[in-house]
Amino acid sequence: MEKRYRYFWTLLGIQARWLDKMSDRGLRLVRTEKLLYEFEPCAPGEYRYCVEFVAHLSRDKAEDYGRFLEDCGYRVWFKNANLDWNVGKVEVRPWAEPGGRLASNATTYNRELLIVEKKNDGKPFQLHSSNEDKARYYRAQRRPALFLFVIMAPLAVVLRSWPAGIFAVLALAMLLRCQLALAKLKRQGSLTE
Amino acid sequence: MRDNAKGGALTEVTFYILLALHRPRHGYAVMQFVEERTAGRLILGAGTLYGALNALQEKGWIAPVGADAGRKKEFAVTPLGREMAARELARLKELANTAEEILKEARNGEAIPLLLDAAGDPGPVAG
Question: Torsions phi, psi of A11, nearest 5?
Answer without folding.
Answer: -80, 80
